[in-house]
Amino acid sequence: MPRPLRIAHLADTHLGYRALGRSEPGGYRNQRSVDIELAFERVVDSLLGRGVDLVLHAGDVFHHTRPSWTTLGVFVRQMRRIEEAGIPALVIAGNHDTPRMRQSGSVFDLLGLALPMTCFMAGYEQDEWDVPGLDLVVHGIPHGALVNPDPPFVIPVAGRRNIIVTHGLAAGVQTRGHEPGEERLAPDLLDPAADYVALGHFHLGGQPTRNAWYSGSTERMGWGDEEATPGYNLVILDETGTVAVEHVAVPARRMKTLAPIDGEGLLARELADIVLDRAAAFGDPMAMVRLELRGVPRQIRREVEGMVRREVGDRVWDLRVYTAADLLERFAEGRDEALPPLRELFARFVDENRQQGLYDDRFAALFRERGSRALDDAQRLAAERSPDEGTAA
């Protein structure tokens, strides 16, 4: 009878992520990049103290396919701690780790030399790893294997414990939007015969099927992660095949969207004072906070933003004000550092589904036309909320 196993399942560390343009105190590095690195270190601290037998990273190790030398160094240092503890580890590539052109190669080829005791699966084929001494087979399906014409399919090894590790969006998982390269997971890929399916990509965590779990991200990134609980999953497989999953939270910088303010008819100074009072009442000087201004023309919003940034002090770590038109404008013009223009995202989405055979040519053309028209209408309506300031797109 196999012995019980304790497995650490983590994903979406996004090392190299940067945002908000603020440097660490007394240094030159982006503070959010440092936050992301500290979160990964805290996860490693935690799992090393939990006596785990195996570590599984389910993708999006890095935020970019070509991470900086500093970012690479952070990853290698933390993974060496796991290797030095004698814990086997598997790392697969997520969509952020996978180059768009296959011939460009992967950073994981280099990392395999720096971390010889860690198993990397970062190519365009699924693979199996018979973990030494654990009576366990891990079926790794990196993001690249999900984009092939022939979808991956797992056949569990009879008489052994089987785990699947992959990176994508399971059926039924609700997200606020889709990103380039995102792949939907076929329902039969989440094989019910597997003991556990370790998923990456969805930052909020959860259990989409009976035996499949998202661990969530190790830190919050964009505002879609506001409700996330950063950390990892501690998975216990007992002698009978029963699976117990505990989500282990790690400290991370809080994100909070405060209640909106109806600013129609108010002066910029009056609005700034209300915003600053709201931030002080929140009571967390280390948090990232944002607040929507309604009924406010763009020029007033800009004046409020300038006052707030100059005067926020230690009320919160970062304070932003915005209008609905601002959000649409960033999508339309591609100002968000992580996202291209919204129309481009939609066109990619339609093309990817057509190429995969999910849409025929006629449906794809009609969907593109009507979807583009709907985006134009939405941006026009947002612009009409502040008619004196021109269009938001």
Largest sheet, spatial ordering of strands: 4-3-2-1-11-12
The structural class is alpha/beta
N-to-C SSE string, H for helix and E for strand: EHEHEHEEEHEEEEEEEHEHEHHH
**CATH superfamily descriptor of the largest domain:** Metallo-dependent phosphatases
Low-confidence stretches: 333-339, 382-393
CATH architecture of the largest domain: 4-Layer Sandwich
Proportion of strand residues: 15-25%
Mean pLDDT: 88
List strands and helices in order, with pairings:
Layout: E1 5-10, H1 31-48, E2 54-57, H2 69-84, E3 89-92, H3 107-114, E4 118-121, E5 127-131, E6 136-141, H4 143-146, E7 161-167, E8 196-200, E9 206-209, E10 212-214, E11 231-237, E12 243-249, E13 255-262, H5 268-282, E14 288-294, H6 298-311, E15 318-322, H7 324-333, H8 342-355, H9 361-383
Structural summary, described in words:
This protein is of the alpha/beta class and 393 residues long. It has three domains: 5-249, Purple Acid Phosphatase, chain A, domain 2 (4-Layer Sandwich); 255-322; 327-389, no CATH class. It contains nine helices and 15 strands. It has helices at residues 31-48, 69-84, 107-114, 143-146, 268-282, 298-311, 324-333, 342-355, 361-383, and strands at 5-10, 54-57, 89-92, 118-121, 127-131, 136-141, 161-167, 196-200, 206-209, 212-214, 231-237, 243-249, 255-262, 288-294, 318-322. The strands form three sheets. A six-stranded mixed beta sheet has the order 4-3-2-1-11-12, covered by helices on one side. The protein has a six-stranded mixed beta sheet with strand order 5-6-7-8-10-9. The chain has a three-stranded parallel beta sheet with strand order 13-14-15. Strand 14 (288-294), helix 6 (298-311) and strand 15 form a beta-alpha-beta unit. The longest helix has 23 residues, at 361-383. It is globular, with a radius of gyration of 23 Å. The protein starts with a strand and ends in a 10-residue tail after the last helix.
